[in-house]
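Checklist before submission:
- one chain only
- standard amino acids only
- sequence pasted in full

Submission:
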Amino acid sequence: MPARIHVSVERQSLHLALANGVERHYDVSTAANGAGCETGSYCTPTGDHRIRLKIGEGCPKGAVFRRRRPTGEIFDPELAERFPDRDWILTRILWLEGLQYGINRASSVDTLRRFIYIHGTADEHLIGRPVSHGCIRMRNDEIVDLFSLVPTGIAVHIE
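Returned file contents:
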């Protein structure tokens, strides 16, 4: 069986299965607005995807990213207090690309252009509940684990 990631919006879970038999299960947080592919919907896109880019290798846990680049900051309570409304993207980024034209690729439904990621979060206490702005949030230790196991191009199915 080829390597793959399966994300369930209903169960708020991510399952990784690698060709060598390694499997992992993680709780995640998907969009507060539910599932959907339209630009501006703040929904988690569904269907077949792949990891287009892996960003953040070697960055420390809690590293803050803005526009997919590390800022040099490490998330802490003082930073959270200074920027209370920021949608924190931390530790690692797995940038998703849709593979289904008209469903999650091209025009107004393009996952890549929507900047949909699997990433670490400051809101680890909310993992397991749909509260994101469209991305798939993970606990920081777990995104480090997932990042270390998956290659660029691995299939990701979101349902």
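Reviewer check: Strands lie at 4-8, 13-17, 23-27, 47-55, 63-66, 69-74, 89-98, 117-120, 136-138, 155-158.
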